[in-house]
Specification:
The structure is a single chain. This protein has 461 residues and is of the alpha/beta class. The chain folds into 2 domains: 132 residues, Alpha-Beta Complex (Aspartate Aminotransferase, domain 1), CATH 3.90.1150; 274 residues, 3-Layer(aba) Sandwich (Aspartate Aminotransferase, domain 2), CATH 3.40.640.10. The protein contains 14 helices and 17 strands. The strands form 4 sheets. It has a 7-stranded mixed β-sheet with strand order 4-12-11-10-7-5-6, with helices on both faces. Strand 2 and strand 3 form a beta hairpin.
Length: 461
């Protein structure tokens, strides 16, 4: 087969490749041909800074020699080994490394493919645990999750998700989930002050748990930041508070660190900030440095023991993926963890986090910026039509996307969450690259909000 032309590639990309979360009737191809460090290059040789880490997963930059070599070395051994009744040294070493790194007590690792499957595993594991523990509680079949939560796109992860625009279509297929309010400190309920926010949101969780704990299997939460909900940063103490509540009411806590883990918040795991050990911890995205699909669900001894027994007892966790624990992915993950140590990635984040904060504070003064939010090297800028009233732009106006289009013309790749602009570069980003990313965002905001159109208020979910 001869090499296709650029025009052929674009035609096939428009009409054959079905892109996720993309309206294909409007899609205009951007085909990335190669990358290096924090820069990706398209077919025409145009360079773009990767301002969202290839959807929040790239950690140490593209084509990092340490990660590249680890995958090549693993190829010389074996590319894939099933985890169903077999194993390989690379995956075993990764499991031990994760147990040593994660919060204390998480001594067992179940590997899967991506963030959604990591949450799916946790949800199913929690249900089966309650049915198989020494004093079974089979009535515990529902879950608690936050409003506007996003935990993936498999049916279990969709059931605990709360983004109506993504999930409303599939409601007939979903199981019951009780919703606690999203702990949003920007759009607080009427008569709730910022000082009262923590108590208000924890009280709302306690009301649900006190009334329904007998039938609740687990609460699912993204620690510190609800990512796809709009990078909503929780008030300090919220994570520790729900850990205490779930323990008090005998409900498991599932921490979804798919987006916020692997150094994004300034520590390796977001749970570390409030010294919390969840009952189940979900990891993916940056686990392999953004190179290959891999996810991990970690849990403790009590849950592990509930699945042990003789073959005829059928206590086995009947769940698995063909590529779960893939050794190529495990090699990339081990190398990713090595680079964290060798390059002192976390220790070097301080100046980058501070520089991002400086840029966000400057953007906060722009007339159509309602709020700026930050947690570690995660930044967000929320656009509003009316700053005083916090009135969002109608989502149909695609203001966030217009900012990203402007930034792209300046050589920066971004992807918004509606009216929320996300700044989440690789942890390896330099200060100069971070400046360029943030300046492109600020210029894009000015361009995209210059014309403040008049529309009837439309909530932007």
């Amino acid at each position: 087969m001869t090499e296709p032309t650029r025009r052929q590639l674009e035609d096939w990309d428009r009409n054959i490749v079905w892109h996720p979360f993309t309206q294909m009737a409007e899609y205009e191809p951007l085909i990335v041909d190669r990358a290096d460090g924090c820069t990706v290059v398209d077919l025409d040789g145009r360079e773009y800074l990767d301002g969202v880490s290839s959807l929040w997963c790239n950690v140490h930059g593209h084509r990092h020699p340490r990660l590249d070599q680890a995958i090549r070395d693993q190829l010389d051994r074996v590319a894939h080994v099933t985890a169903l009744g077999a194993s390989n040294p690379t995956t075993i070493k990764l499991a031990k490394r994760l147990v040593d790194l994660t919060p204390p007590g998480l001594n067992h690792v179940f590997f899967s493919d991506d963030g959604a499957t990591a949450v799916e595993v946790a949800v199913k594991m929690a249900l089966q645990y309650w049915r198989q523990r020494p004093d079974p509680r089979p009535e515990k079949t529902c879950y608690v999750a936050l409003a506007n939560a996003y935990h993936g796109d498999t049916l279990g992860s969709v059931s605990v998700g709360g983004v109506a625009r993504f999930h409303a279509m599939f409601e007939p297929l979903l199981f019951e989930t009780l919703r606690a309010p999203s702990p949003d400190t920007y759009r607080l309920p009427a008569n709730v002050t910022p000082e009262e926010a923590l108590g208000y949101y924890l009280n709302a969780v306690e009301q649900i748990l006190s009334e329904h704990h007998a039938r609740i299997a687990a609460m699912v939460v993204e620690p510190l930041v609800q990512a796809a909900a709009g990078m909503i940063v929780h008030p300090g103490g919220y994570l520790a508070g729900i850990r205490e509540l779930t323990r008090r009411y005998d409900v498991l806590l599932i921490a979804d660190e798919v987006a916020v883990g692997m150094g994004r918040t300034g520590r390796m795991f977001a749970c570390e900030h409030e010294e919390v050990t969840p009952d189940l911890l979900c990891l993916a995205k940056g686990l392999t440095g953004g190179y290959l699909p891999m996810a991990a669900t970690l849990t403790g001894d009590e849950i592990w023991r509930a699945f042990l027994g003789g073959y005829a007892e059928s206590k086995t966790f009947f769940h698995g993926h063909t590529y779960g624990g893939n050794p190529l992915s495990a090699a990339a993950a081990l190398a990713t963890l090595d680079v964290f140590d060798e390059e002192a990635t976390l220790a070097n984040l301080g100046p980058k986090i501070a520089r991002l904060g400086e840029h966000l504070q400057r953007m906060a003064s722009l007339p159509q910026v309602g709020d700026v939010r930050q947690c570690g090297l995660i930044g967000a800028v929320e656009l509003v039509r009316d700053r005083a009233a916090k009135t969002p732009y109608p989502w149909e106006e695609k203001r966030g996307m217009r900012v990203c289009d402007h930034a792209r013309a300046k050589g920066v790749l971004l992807r918004p969450l509606g009216n929320v602009l996300v700044i989440m570069p690789p942890l390896a980003v330099s200060l100069e690259e971070l400046d360029r990313i943030c300046e492109a965002v600020a210029d894009g905001i000015r361009a995209a909000t210059r014309e403040n159109l008049t529309h009837t208020d439309t909530p932007d979910a």
